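Predicting holo structure, iron/sulfur cluster bound.
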Amino acid sequence: MSHFVLDARYLLCPMPVIRTQNRIAELAPGDTLEVHATDPGALHDIPAWCRVHGHEVVSVTNADKKISITLRVGGAA
Amino acid sequence: MSPQQPLPVNSIARAAPAAGAPRKAVALISGGLDSMLAAKVMLEQGIHVEGINFYTGFCVEGHTHAIRNHEHAKPKRNNALWTAEQLGIKLHIIEVIEEYKDVVINPKHGYGANLNPCLDCKGFMVRKAREWMEKNDFDFIITGEVLGQRPMSQRRDTMPVVARESGAFDRLLRPLCAKLLPETLPEREGWVDRSKLLDFNGRSRKPQMRLAAQYGFTDYAQPAGGCCFLTNEQYSHKLADLWSTRGTKQYELDDIMLLKVGRHLRPRPNFKMIVGRDEGENNFLEGYRKRFVHLHATSHEGPLVLIDGSANEDDLELAARLTARFGKGREAESVTLTVTDMQGNNREFKVVPMPANEIPPEWYL
Ligand code: SF4
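Done. Tokens:
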């Protein structure tokens, strides 16, 4: 189980969620991915995308227009 | 090919699913009601459905909501994701910005009322869905198309064009109007029950709304013209202006994003101005400052303005007067502005704001 970081800053929605999706496709169940974004749409899209795909949102922080969302990859697809 | 003739067969052989496992359909999900209903009709028949959604750069989804300040700020949502969540299905969002350029620039079947290449676009999206289906071992493709609903892509004679050009052939099922179309593979094989499919036809939205009520769907998105900015007259006008002034039909993502933002004015053939309309747009335009000569008033509050093209001294003066016009100093005797070039050098201009009645309407793109 490993931790990964994805830089999706300065991308406009829906690019952050697309990058998240594509990165998660390469990870294993239990891995965590920390996504950095600046478009506030990511606060909505990434958790929504995780809900429909069965990944867990571990934490969300949004300070000073810097958004960080940590996800745990869900069970064997 | 007459629409009543059976479609050619998609020859890709696919192994039958394990006993008891459901057949799988990939659904084109736009975020609108029709594709939501089509997917629901399949779910009701016990089909395993997953959604696919394409990001072309022209989509109405997403960022444009974020860019403008809305007074009655609705919680911003991605309608395709929202739809998937309501349906309880997965949604795969595919970025197709580069590939899609050819669809917009060279549509084989031409444009609709504006620069919307709907027929080529549908063919493209169904082709991408077919590729996804083959890669992921799905059985067929569904769309929310309704016969006769859209003047270009949803006509009786154009529906087979999409099936053929996408290579999906009889693996493309349109649950909302399937009863009016030739039988497809999923129907013939008995994976879906044709008698429970629908016969929606024409521009009326009533049957869809009735079905939505029956399924208990409320609060769904109702895109007016279409799923993307290319159906918008003003947007298409700006894109046509971009192509004609550059002398070439090309674009980059930044170009088409900027066409969604601000007021666009072309006072001279050699340059246009992009004027932020509110704080959200000004913030967005800030991100492009380093790549454009830009202006903003310093003596009064006002918009950030980008200059696209090359402007000489007289042009800059004109741009400054217009910029002053769109700020709080519009009635002032004079407004002081800073003009910044792409190297970051600042210069100051002091100008008389241009009176509204001196701006010819044709300057507005
Ligand atoms: S409205 Fe836009 S996205 Fe929808 S079919 Fe037409 S060109 Fe494609």
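The two ends of chain B are 42 Å apart (CA to CA).
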